[in-house]
């Protein structure tokens, strides 16, 4: 596999993983109703996921 292909593949994967936090915002009311929690709590769960993802990806550099 060439280096340019690896970089393009990495960029595409990063885009999809990064946008997953934003896509879920449209479904917060459905998620909150199904889980029996408030919409604000469902939004905080999304924020916790995003923060965990950010910390987890940086841990390789320590």
Automatic annotation (TrEMBL):
Membrane-spanning ranges? 35-56
This protein's UniProt keywords: Membrane, Transmembrane, Transmembrane helix
Instruction: Tell me yes or no: is Transmembrane among this UniProt entry's keywords.
Output: yes
Q: What is this protein called?
A: MFS transporter
């Amino acid at each position: 596999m060439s280096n340019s292909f690896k970089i393009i593949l990495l960029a595409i994967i990063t885009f999809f993983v990064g946008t997953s936090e934003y896509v879920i915002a449209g479904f917060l009311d459905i998620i909150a109703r199904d889980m029996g929690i408030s919409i604000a709590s469902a939004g905080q769960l999304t924020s916790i996921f995003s923060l965990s993802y950010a910390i987890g990806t940086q841990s390789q550099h320590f």
